[in-house]
Amino acid sequence: MALQRRRHNNYQRIRIRLLIPLISGVAAALLVLFSLLSILAPSPNDTDHLRHFYTSSLNATPDDAITTPVFCVPRGGGKMDRHVWSSRNSEHFHGCSDAGNKFPNNFVFLMAEAQVITQANRYLMIATSGGLNQQRTGITDGVVAARILNATLVIPKLDQKSFWKDSSNFSEIFDVDWFISYLSKDVKIIKQLPRRGGKTLSSYNMRVPRKCNERCYVNRILPVLLKKHAVQLSKFDYRLANRLDTEYQKLRCRVNYHALRFTNPIFSMGEKLVHRMRMRSKHYIALHLR
Protein backbone atom coordinates (compact mmCIF):
# COMPACT_ATOMS: atom_id res chain seq x y z
CA MET A 1 0.00 0.00 0.00
CA ALA A 2 2.78 2.44 0.93
CA LEU A 3 4.55 1.67 -2.37
CA GLN A 4 1.39 2.33 -4.38
CA ARG A 5 0.83 5.66 -2.59
CA ARG A 6 4.42 6.67 -3.36
CA ARG A 7 4.00 5.83 -7.03
CA HIS A 8 0.72 7.74 -7.19
CA ASN A 9 2.27 10.86 -5.60
CA ASN A 10 5.23 10.73 -7.96
CA TYR A 11 2.85 10.46 -10.90
CA GLN A 12 0.92 13.55 -9.69
CA ARG A 13 4.12 15.57 -9.32
CA ILE A 14 5.30 14.62 -12.82
CA ARG A 15 1.91 15.61 -14.30
CA ILE A 16 1.97 18.99 -12.54
CA ARG A 17 5.52 19.66 -13.77
CA LEU A 18 4.41 18.92 -17.31
CA LEU A 19 1.34 21.17 -17.03
CA ILE A 20 3.20 24.26 -15.75
CA PRO A 21 5.10 24.95 -19.03
CA LEU A 22 1.91 24.34 -21.01
CA ILE A 23 -0.11 26.84 -18.91
CA SER A 24 2.73 29.38 -19.13
CA GLY A 25 2.85 29.03 -22.90
CA VAL A 26 -0.90 29.53 -23.28
CA ALA A 27 -0.82 32.60 -21.00
CA ALA A 28 2.08 34.10 -22.97
CA ALA A 29 0.26 33.50 -26.25
CA LEU A 30 -2.90 35.22 -24.94
CA LEU A 31 -0.86 38.16 -23.68
CA VAL A 32 0.76 38.62 -27.10
CA LEU A 33 -2.64 38.34 -28.79
CA PHE A 34 -4.22 41.00 -26.56
CA SER A 35 -1.22 43.27 -27.07
CA LEU A 36 -1.56 43.00 -30.85
CA LEU A 37 -5.30 43.68 -30.67
CA SER A 38 -4.79 46.80 -28.54
CA ILE A 39 -2.21 48.13 -31.00
CA LEU A 40 -4.11 47.31 -34.19
CA ALA A 41 -7.62 48.18 -32.99
CA PRO A 42 -8.94 51.46 -34.47
CA SER A 43 -9.88 54.32 -32.18
CA PRO A 44 -13.63 54.97 -31.59
CA ASN A 45 -13.54 58.09 -33.80
CA ASP A 46 -11.39 56.57 -36.54
CA THR A 47 -12.62 57.60 -39.99
CA ASP A 48 -11.44 57.38 -43.57
CA HIS A 49 -10.34 60.98 -43.28
CA LEU A 50 -8.08 60.16 -40.32
CA ARG A 51 -6.60 57.10 -42.00
CA HIS A 52 -5.87 59.11 -45.11
CA PHE A 53 -4.21 61.81 -43.06
CA TYR A 54 -2.15 59.37 -41.03
CA THR A 55 -0.87 57.64 -44.20
CA SER A 56 -0.02 60.86 -45.99
CA SER A 57 1.57 62.39 -42.90
CA LEU A 58 4.27 59.71 -42.85
CA ASN A 59 5.71 61.25 -46.01
CA ALA A 60 5.27 64.84 -44.86
CA THR A 61 7.95 67.03 -43.33
CA PRO A 62 7.47 68.50 -39.84
CA ASP A 63 7.16 71.99 -41.33
CA ASP A 64 4.36 70.84 -43.65
CA ALA A 65 2.53 69.29 -40.71
CA ILE A 66 2.49 72.53 -38.75
CA THR A 67 1.83 74.99 -41.56
CA THR A 68 -0.89 72.97 -43.31
CA PRO A 69 -4.09 72.92 -41.23
CA VAL A 70 -5.44 69.39 -41.04
CA PHE A 71 -7.50 69.44 -37.86
CA CYS A 72 -9.64 72.46 -37.06
CA VAL A 73 -11.31 72.99 -33.69
CA PRO A 74 -14.78 74.51 -34.33
CA ARG A 75 -15.22 78.10 -33.24
CA GLY A 76 -18.49 79.27 -31.74
CA GLY A 77 -19.92 75.87 -30.83
CA GLY A 78 -20.35 74.75 -34.44
CA LYS A 79 -19.80 71.31 -35.94
CA MET A 80 -16.80 69.91 -37.79
CA ASP A 81 -16.43 67.01 -40.19
CA ARG A 82 -15.00 64.85 -37.40
CA HIS A 83 -16.47 65.37 -33.96
CA VAL A 84 -17.48 63.42 -30.87
CA TRP A 85 -21.07 62.81 -32.03
CA SER A 86 -19.84 60.95 -35.15
CA SER A 87 -18.33 58.19 -33.02
CA ARG A 88 -20.05 54.82 -33.24
CA ASN A 89 -20.03 54.82 -29.42
CA SER A 90 -22.29 57.90 -29.25
CA GLU A 91 -25.41 56.53 -30.92
CA HIS A 92 -27.33 56.64 -27.64
CA PHE A 93 -26.24 60.17 -26.68
CA HIS A 94 -27.13 63.65 -27.88
CA GLY A 95 -26.20 67.26 -27.13
CA CYS A 96 -28.35 68.92 -24.47
CA SER A 97 -27.11 72.48 -23.94
CA ASP A 98 -29.98 74.23 -25.75
CA ALA A 99 -32.51 75.91 -23.45
CA GLY A 100 -35.94 74.30 -23.18
CA ASN A 101 -39.25 75.96 -23.92
CA LYS A 102 -40.04 76.32 -20.21
CA PHE A 103 -36.89 78.32 -19.42
CA PRO A 104 -38.13 81.87 -18.56
CA ASN A 105 -37.09 83.17 -21.83
CA ASN A 106 -35.51 86.19 -23.32
CA PHE A 107 -35.49 84.52 -26.69
CA VAL A 108 -38.71 86.05 -28.05
CA PHE A 109 -37.57 89.54 -27.09
CA LEU A 110 -34.80 89.93 -29.63
CA MET A 111 -34.17 93.60 -28.91
CA ALA A 112 -34.36 93.51 -25.10
CA GLU A 113 -32.60 90.14 -24.79
CA ALA A 114 -31.52 89.33 -21.21
CA GLN A 115 -32.65 92.73 -19.91
CA VAL A 116 -36.16 91.28 -19.84
CA ILE A 117 -35.11 88.93 -17.03
CA THR A 118 -32.41 91.09 -15.41
CA GLN A 119 -33.66 93.43 -12.70
CA ALA A 120 -32.28 96.95 -12.36
CA ASN A 121 -29.76 97.79 -9.63
CA ARG A 122 -28.66 94.19 -9.11
CA TYR A 123 -24.97 93.64 -9.87
CA LEU A 124 -23.20 90.37 -9.05
CA MET A 125 -19.43 90.05 -8.99
CA ILE A 126 -17.47 86.87 -8.35
CA ALA A 127 -13.83 86.39 -7.40
CA THR A 128 -12.74 82.93 -8.54
CA SER A 129 -10.29 80.72 -6.66
CA GLY A 130 -7.89 77.88 -7.41
CA GLY A 131 -6.27 76.69 -10.62
CA LEU A 132 -7.67 77.40 -14.09
CA ASN A 133 -10.03 74.38 -14.04
CA GLN A 134 -11.49 75.44 -10.68
CA GLN A 135 -11.78 79.03 -11.86
CA ARG A 136 -13.56 77.90 -15.02
CA THR A 137 -16.06 76.06 -12.82
CA GLY A 138 -16.48 79.21 -10.74
CA ILE A 139 -17.16 81.32 -13.83
CA THR A 140 -19.74 78.80 -15.03
CA ASP A 141 -21.48 78.76 -11.66
CA GLY A 142 -21.30 82.55 -11.46
CA VAL A 143 -23.36 82.90 -14.62
CA VAL A 144 -25.99 80.52 -13.25
CA ALA A 145 -26.01 82.36 -9.90
CA ALA A 146 -26.61 85.67 -11.69
CA ARG A 147 -29.52 84.08 -13.55
CA ILE A 148 -31.01 82.72 -10.30
CA LEU A 149 -30.79 86.21 -8.76
CA ASN A 150 -31.96 88.00 -11.94
CA ALA A 151 -28.83 90.12 -11.61
CA THR A 152 -26.34 91.66 -14.03
CA LEU A 153 -23.04 89.77 -13.94
CA VAL A 154 -19.78 91.71 -13.96
CA ILE A 155 -16.95 89.94 -15.81
CA PRO A 156 -15.43 87.61 -13.17
CA LYS A 157 -12.11 88.29 -11.50
CA LEU A 158 -9.51 85.56 -11.85
CA ASP A 159 -7.45 84.38 -8.89
CA GLN A 160 -4.13 86.24 -8.91
CA LYS A 161 -3.16 85.70 -5.28
CA SER A 162 -2.95 81.91 -4.89
CA PHE A 163 0.33 80.02 -5.16
CA TRP A 164 0.00 79.96 -8.96
CA LYS A 165 0.91 83.69 -8.96
CA ASP A 166 -0.65 84.15 -12.40
CA SER A 167 -1.38 87.82 -13.11
CA SER A 168 -3.65 87.11 -16.11
CA ASN A 169 -7.10 88.66 -16.12
CA PHE A 170 -10.26 87.32 -17.78
CA SER A 171 -9.73 89.05 -21.12
CA GLU A 172 -6.19 87.65 -21.44
CA ILE A 173 -7.43 84.06 -21.15
CA PHE A 174 -10.95 84.12 -22.62
CA ASP A 175 -12.61 85.97 -25.49
CA VAL A 176 -14.56 88.45 -23.36
CA ASP A 177 -16.68 89.93 -26.18
CA TRP A 178 -17.77 86.47 -27.34
CA PHE A 179 -18.57 85.55 -23.74
CA ILE A 180 -20.86 88.57 -23.34
CA SER A 181 -22.60 88.22 -26.70
CA TYR A 182 -23.13 84.45 -26.57
CA LEU A 183 -24.85 84.63 -23.18
CA SER A 184 -26.78 87.83 -23.92
CA LYS A 185 -30.06 85.90 -24.12
CA ASP A 186 -29.48 84.25 -20.74
CA VAL A 187 -27.73 86.79 -18.52
CA LYS A 188 -26.80 90.42 -18.96
CA ILE A 189 -23.01 90.76 -18.57
CA ILE A 190 -20.95 93.96 -18.27
CA LYS A 191 -17.19 94.51 -18.06
CA GLN A 192 -17.21 96.67 -14.93
CA LEU A 193 -19.56 98.21 -12.42
CA PRO A 194 -21.36 101.37 -13.61
CA ARG A 195 -20.59 104.85 -12.30
CA ARG A 196 -23.02 106.73 -10.07
CA GLY A 197 -22.51 110.38 -9.29
CA GLY A 198 -19.08 110.35 -10.90
CA LYS A 199 -17.91 107.38 -8.83
CA THR A 200 -17.81 103.68 -9.57
CA LEU A 201 -20.47 101.80 -7.64
CA SER A 202 -18.88 100.02 -4.67
CA SER A 203 -19.61 96.35 -3.96
CA TYR A 204 -20.36 94.54 -0.71
CA ASN A 205 -18.07 91.56 -0.17
CA MET A 206 -19.43 88.28 1.20
CA ARG A 207 -18.99 84.52 0.87
CA VAL A 208 -21.65 81.95 0.09
CA PRO A 209 -21.55 78.42 1.59
CA ARG A 210 -20.31 75.60 -0.62
CA LYS A 211 -22.85 73.64 -2.67
CA CYS A 212 -25.48 76.35 -2.13
CA ASN A 213 -28.68 75.63 -4.09
CA GLU A 214 -31.25 77.98 -5.68
CA ARG A 215 -33.17 78.53 -2.42
CA CYS A 216 -29.92 79.22 -0.58
CA TYR A 217 -29.02 82.00 -3.04
CA VAL A 218 -32.47 83.52 -2.86
CA ASN A 219 -32.52 83.45 0.96
CA ARG A 220 -28.92 84.49 1.64
CA ILE A 221 -27.75 86.64 -1.28
CA LEU A 222 -30.87 88.27 -2.71
CA PRO A 223 -31.77 90.32 0.43
CA VAL A 224 -28.22 91.71 0.57
CA LEU A 225 -28.27 92.37 -3.18
CA LEU A 226 -31.53 94.30 -2.90
CA LYS A 227 -30.05 96.43 -0.11
CA LYS A 228 -26.49 96.96 -1.36
CA HIS A 229 -27.23 96.73 -5.13
CA ALA A 230 -23.73 95.33 -5.84
CA VAL A 231 -22.37 92.16 -4.19
CA GLN A 232 -19.05 90.39 -4.72
CA LEU A 233 -18.88 86.69 -3.81
CA SER A 234 -15.31 85.93 -2.75
CA LYS A 235 -13.41 82.63 -3.06
CA PHE A 236 -16.04 81.45 -5.50
CA ASP A 237 -15.12 77.79 -5.94
CA TYR A 238 -17.84 75.11 -5.90
CA ARG A 239 -20.28 77.55 -4.33
CA LEU A 240 -23.21 76.25 -6.34
CA ALA A 241 -24.89 72.88 -5.80
CA ASN A 242 -24.23 70.09 -8.29
CA ARG A 243 -27.92 69.22 -8.46
CA LEU A 244 -29.96 72.03 -9.97
CA ASP A 245 -33.03 72.40 -12.12
CA THR A 246 -32.44 70.91 -15.58
CA GLU A 247 -32.55 74.31 -17.29
CA TYR A 248 -29.82 75.65 -15.02
CA GLN A 249 -27.73 72.58 -15.82
CA LYS A 250 -28.19 73.32 -19.52
CA LEU A 251 -27.09 76.90 -18.89
CA ARG A 252 -23.96 75.50 -17.23
CA CYS A 253 -23.26 73.56 -20.43
CA ARG A 254 -23.77 76.64 -22.61
CA VAL A 255 -21.30 78.60 -20.50
CA ASN A 256 -18.63 75.91 -20.19
CA TYR A 257 -18.70 74.42 -23.69
CA HIS A 258 -19.74 77.38 -25.85
CA ALA A 259 -19.38 80.78 -24.15
CA LEU A 260 -15.93 80.28 -22.60
CA ARG A 261 -13.65 80.47 -25.62
CA PHE A 262 -9.90 81.00 -25.37
CA THR A 263 -8.26 84.05 -26.91
CA ASN A 264 -6.71 83.74 -30.37
CA PRO A 265 -3.06 83.36 -29.19
CA ILE A 266 -4.00 80.50 -26.83
CA PHE A 267 -6.26 78.94 -29.46
CA SER A 268 -3.50 79.07 -32.10
CA MET A 269 -1.02 77.42 -29.76
CA GLY A 270 -3.55 74.66 -29.02
CA GLU A 271 -4.08 74.02 -32.74
CA LYS A 272 -0.33 73.80 -33.30
CA LEU A 273 0.03 71.24 -30.50
CA VAL A 274 -2.85 69.17 -31.91
CA HIS A 275 -1.25 69.19 -35.37
CA ARG A 276 2.05 67.94 -33.98
CA MET A 277 0.36 65.20 -31.94
CA ARG A 278 -1.61 63.95 -34.94
CA MET A 279 1.63 63.68 -36.91
CA ARG A 280 2.93 61.09 -34.47
CA SER A 281 -0.02 58.93 -33.43
CA LYS A 282 -3.77 58.44 -33.48
CA HIS A 283 -4.06 57.36 -29.83
CA TYR A 284 -3.76 59.85 -26.96
CA ILE A 285 -3.93 59.98 -23.19
CA ALA A 286 -4.75 63.22 -21.33
CA LEU A 287 -2.91 63.57 -18.04
CA HIS A 288 -3.86 66.19 -15.43
CA LEU A 289 -0.78 66.75 -13.28
CA ARG A 290 -1.30 67.66 -9.62
From TrEMBL:
One of its GO terms (molecular function) is glycosyltransferase activity. One of its GO terms (biological process) is fucose metabolic process. InterPro entries: GDP-Fuc_O-FucTrfase (IPR019378). The keyword RNA-binding does not apply. It comes from the Eukaryota. The chain crosses the membrane at residues 20-41. Pfam families: O-FucT. Keywords: Carbohydrate metabolism, Fucose metabolism, Glycosyltransferase, Membrane, Transferase, Transmembrane, Transmembrane helix. PANTHER family: O-FUCOSYLTRANSFERASE 16. Belongs to the glycosyltransferase GT106 family. This is O-fucosyltransferase family protein. It comes from Arachis hypogaea. The lineage of its organism: Eukaryota, Viridiplantae, Streptophyta, Embryophyta, Tracheophyta.
